[in-house]
UniProtKB/TrEMBL annotation:
NCBIfam families according to UniProt: purD
Keyword entries, A-Z: ATP-binding, Ligase, Magnesium, Manganese, Nucleotide-binding, Purine biosynthesis
Classification of source organism: Archaea, Methanobacteriati, Methanobacteriota, Stenosarchaea group, Methanomicrobia
Cofactor requirement: Mg(2+); Mn(2+)
Coiled coil start-end: none
UniProt protein name: Phosphoribosylamine--glycine ligase
Catalytic reactions of this protein: 5-phospho-beta-D-ribosylamine + glycine + ATP = N(1)-(5-phospho-beta-D-ribosyl)glycinamide + ADP + phosphate + H(+)
Single GO molecular function: phosphoribosylamine-glycine ligase activity
GO biological process: 'de novo' IMP biosynthetic process; purine nucleobase biosynthetic process
Length: 430
């Protein structure tokens, strides 16, 4: 079976590794930058923007591709799934109209509102920066300020975190020629719930917690995600059974709403939730696997990802298709010095000893056996263990043994940070 994977990040390396565990899979890849991990296992690679739909379609037709797995959001927004589906190529990844759940945050909120879906924060859409500024000035509480379009997770400013009220106004004034969304600031613990879906049935994956902030202790600018962890029981102590059931039913209601609107959703639905005092609220949906979260869950996927993909495409997905090892995972990204604001590229890095970990390459160059940083996240180690402490120990040791101009967050997955999360939730709900 010939399957094309679009994208060249750590997430796509994890997708490609999981797919090629099936010996019948012939992997083809299209990616903007050559990911050395993917290039090594792909039969054929097109180094080209995945958003160039005609070019990707031509490559797929030339190689008689049967299936496609679309990793990032940008090609979904460009309509890659629509174009490939028209050619008879089944896609894991929604068509453009359904991907709006991620690519247009205003659409997402209006859809939730229209269909009475639980977990939607109070929001306001503003057509001009002036309208947003006026609203921010008179609003009694804190707000999150976002452009409605894609920003790679870096476009949100939250009052009381990155900005004060005047800072929020200033930021809104920079968001010209686009709809601005203002949302009540949600307080709580964030978690990621991802699910496979064929447009009707939803099959959830283990809960994961990402770390968006650049530096230890959750400070500094937002990034694409510095690392993430999951527990051996696939849940979190700060998410009750009721919270979990609500989050899953919000995801199911959203898939149902998209189908009702005439855009059935096939692929991975990613729910970013804030578990608040009163239960889970949706921060955002993504129309794809999370990066880094994909690396946590795919590392412990017991089932065959290719079979899951087939069932997503044919509309026959069921819970029996999917099982995960009862192991904890900790993923730590190594990033260039200065990332995300002023990343330094072109530095040589050398991996050292790494035990009980999987190495996923991301934005890194391999030339004559030498690895060099580029401007985005470099590569990640996922440690796997019976519990969090063990998984963290392996990921941490592997990262520490890398030499070169890269850094990582050593606090991700540690007992200290984990205890802080639990205490935070307890305090919020006491
Ligand atoms: P997003 O790009 O929408 O995932 O937002 C990036 C980060 O901003 C999230 O992971 C949250 O930490 C934060 N954020 C977004 N929206 C809100 C909100 N309404 N209240 C509090 N924090 C938010
Ligand atoms: N880790 C957040 C994202 O993939 O959007």
């Amino acid at each position: 079976m010939k399957i094309l994977v679009a994208g060249g990040g750590g997430r796509e390396h994890a997708i490609c590794l999981a797919l090629t565990k099936n010996a019948n899979v012939e992997l083809y890849s299209v990616m903007g930058k050559k990911n050395p991990g993917i290039a090594k296992i792909a039969r054929e690679t097109l180094i080209h923007a995945e958003t160039d739909v005609p070019a990707v379609r031509a490559f797929a037709k030339e190689h008689n591709i049967q299936y496609a797995f679309i990793g990032p959001e940008a090609p979904l927004e460009a309509g890659l799934a629509d174009a490939l589906t028209k050619e008879g190529i089944g896609c894991v990844g929604p068509v453009k109209a359904a991907a709006r759940i991620e690519t247009d945050k205003g659409f997402c909120r209006e859809l939730m509102n229209k269909h009475g879906i639980d977990g939607c924060p109070a929001y306001k859409l503003c057509k001009t920066p002036e309208e947003a500024a006026a609203f921010i000035r008179q609003y009694p509480g804190d707000l999150a300020v976002k452009p409605t379009g894609l920003t790679g997770g870096k476009g949100v400013k939250v009052m009381g975190e990155q900005v004060d009220r005047e800072g929020a106004v200033e930021y809104a004034m920079t968001l010209k020629d686009q709809v601005i969304i203002l949302e009540e600031r949600l307080l709580g613990e964030e978690f990621t719930l991802m699910a496979f879906t064929d447009g009707k049935t939803l099959v959830p994956m283990p809960l994961v917690q990402d770390h968006k902030r650049a530096f230890e202790g959750d400070v500094g600018p937002n990034t694409g995600g510095m690392g993430s962890y999951s527990l051996e029981d696939h849940t979190f102590p700060f998410v009750t059974e009721t919270d979990y059931a609500r989050a899953l039913s919000i995801m199911q209601a959203t898939v149902n709403a998209l189908a009702k609107e005439g855009s059935p959703y096939k692929g991975i639905l990613y729910g970013q939730f804030m578990n608040t005092k009163t239960g889970p609220k949706v921060i955002e949906f993504n129309a794809r696997f999370g990066d880094p979260e994909a690396m946590n869950v795919l590392t412990i996927l017991n089932s065959d990802l290719f079979t899951i993909a087939e069932h997503i495409i044919s509309g026959t997905l069921s819970a029996q298709d999917v099982s995960f090892e009862k192991k904890a995972t900790v993923c730590k990204y190594l990033v260039p010095t200065g990332y995300p604001d002023k990343p330094h590229a072109g530095d040589v890095i050398t991996p050292g000893q790494a035990e009980n970990t999987i190495l996923y390459y991301a934005n890194v160059e391999l030339e004559n056996g030498v690895l060099k940083t580029l401007t985005s996240r470099t590569m990640a180690y996922v440690g796997v263990g019976a519990g969090l402490a063990e998984a963290e120990k392996y990921a941490e040791a592997a990262c520490r043994n890398v030499t070169g101009n890269v850094r990582y967050r050593s606090d991700i997955g540690t007992e200290t940070l984990f205890a802080k999360r639990i205490a935070h939730m307890k305090e919020l709900r006491s």
